[in-house]
Amino acid sequence: MEEESWIASVMALPTLIGNFVTPCIMDRMGRKTALYALTLPIIVGWLFIVIATNFQMLMIGRVLQGLSYGMLMPVRSVVIGEYTSPVNRGAFLATISLSLTFGIFFVHLIGSFFSWQWTALICSFFSYLSLLMTLYCPESPSYLVMKRKYHECKKAFRYLRGDKEEDELEQMIKARLILEETGTTKMNIKEFVRILKKREFYKPVILVVHSYVLLKACGGPLLGAYAHEILTVMMGKTTDVNFWMVFTDGLRFLFSVAGIYVVKRYRRRPLLLCVGSLCVISLLCISLYIYIKTRGMLSYDATWITIVLISFFSFTIAIGVAPLPNIIAGEVFPIAHRAPAAGISVIFDCATIFLVLKTFSFLQGTIGLDGVYLLYAVIVAYLLSVMWVLLPETKGRTLQQIEEEFRGKPIILKETEVLKS
Asked: Is 16 helix (H, G, I), strand (E, B) or coil?
């Protein structure tokens, strides 16, 4: 059990290292170079797992995967937020949680029929597909404008968006020129400390940190790493847990598909309050049911109750709790300082997922599985209250408008000759 907990949780430690690497690459060499850089460790990591013959080789593979995942986390929401239109940005950002849900479902499904080595080999092909997709992606317009490559910025922006969102393009270039004139684009230690004190920097960081912790503390990652153990406690040892594990994964994937439509249609703040409250209720119900069952208050194994509770919980996660943190992270960070803001936020994300996965076995043995879910319900309720206070409505607004909302005042924009080129 100790080795299993390390295999499940060890990714979080190298994820921290990868998180520090990517912001430097993003700022100095671009978003596209960062995407190239993170593919190498994930491919090598899968190779180690495929050929592993002992616990140490598995750990090396997981460490390399964690390094790659850490490099991915700061860049994924940033890239999607910068590439997509405000109209469709939320839906595209929601595909991050959809891909994670699909990954869990796919691994559990394939793992039910093949050995873990074959499962790892099949999964490795997704990394090669990602590398191929990166080859055909343009550089981020926001990065190009930060490097004063205005012609390339316009070309990339119009390639991604067409010619119907020229106002956003002009506002982005103008805002950058004003920052250059005021000398706020030069980065050093003194400047970084000054940036930390800016409302448009620290408020989004606090908001995203709470959203990331919410996603991990709601108990969602446990269904990926400890689904078999949890369902065994809730259903009993005589039930075909493997079947129901794949079933609930598939159901959650379908809910995640529906979540893309939901986040595209509804505003962020009402959606957060609604699904967040439902998530707290689902955690409390699961805790109560486990308490009743483990203490012999039920005279029969009510499998259908477990399926209803897990389905309700998966619904609340997939519809809003999972996609909203990625959407928020892709929308609220200031354009000029997006990489360091994302990096700081991911540190807390990595620490949270490590604590959740590493302490699960200890907490289950100490306060019981019912106590674990009760604890998560209390934590989620706190996180929701903080996010409700800090989160402005971002749906349909440009990144520049959202930044000015946090700043409290707009940047004074001036006409420049560069826009006439």
From this structure: helix
Give residue-wise pLDDT tens across range 117-174. Answer: 888 899 889 988 988 988 888 998 888 888 888 888 889 998 888 888 888 888 777 7
User: CA-CA distances (angstroms) from residue 160 to 72, 156, 221, 285, 331?
Assistant: 21, 6, 33, 45, 17
Handedness of CA 89, 90, 91, 94 (dihedral sign): positive
Quote the tokens at residue 83.
Answer: 């590439």
Report the alpha-carbon distance of residue 331 to residue 338 in Å, rounded: 10
**pLDDT tens track for 261-300:** 888 888 889 999 999 999 999 999 999 998 988 887 776 6
Instruction: For residue 269, give Cα distances in angstroms to 79, 389, 391.
Output: 23, 10, 7
Nearest one of 97, 96, 124 to 110, comparing CA atoms: 124
Q: What share of the chain is helix, strand, coil (3-state, %, to 5)?
A: 80, 0, 20
Under 8 Å between Cβ of 64 and 45: yes
Distance, CA of 298 to CA of 20 (rounded, Å): 50
Residue whose pair of structure tokens reads 């079947």 in the numeric block: 243
- Angle subtended at Cα 266 by Cα 327 and Cα 322, rounded to the nearest 5 degrees: 40
Cα–Cα distance, 301 to 233 (Å, whole number): 11
Q: Which domains does the chain have, with CATH numbers?
A: 2-417 (1.20.1250.20)
Contacts of 132 by beta carbon, 8 Å cutoff, 6+ apart: none
Q: Which of 116-124's residues contact partners 24+ apart within 8 Å by CB, and which partners? A: 116/49, 117/49, 117/50, 117/51, 117/52, 120/46, 120/49, 120/50, 120/61, 121/46, 121/50, 123/46, 124/43, 124/46, 124/47, 124/50
User: Half-sphere exposure (CA, 13 Å, Cβ side) for 152?
Assistant: 13
The structure tokens listed for 359 are 């302490």
What separation, in Å, do the N-terminal and C-terminal C-alpha atoms of the chain show?
64
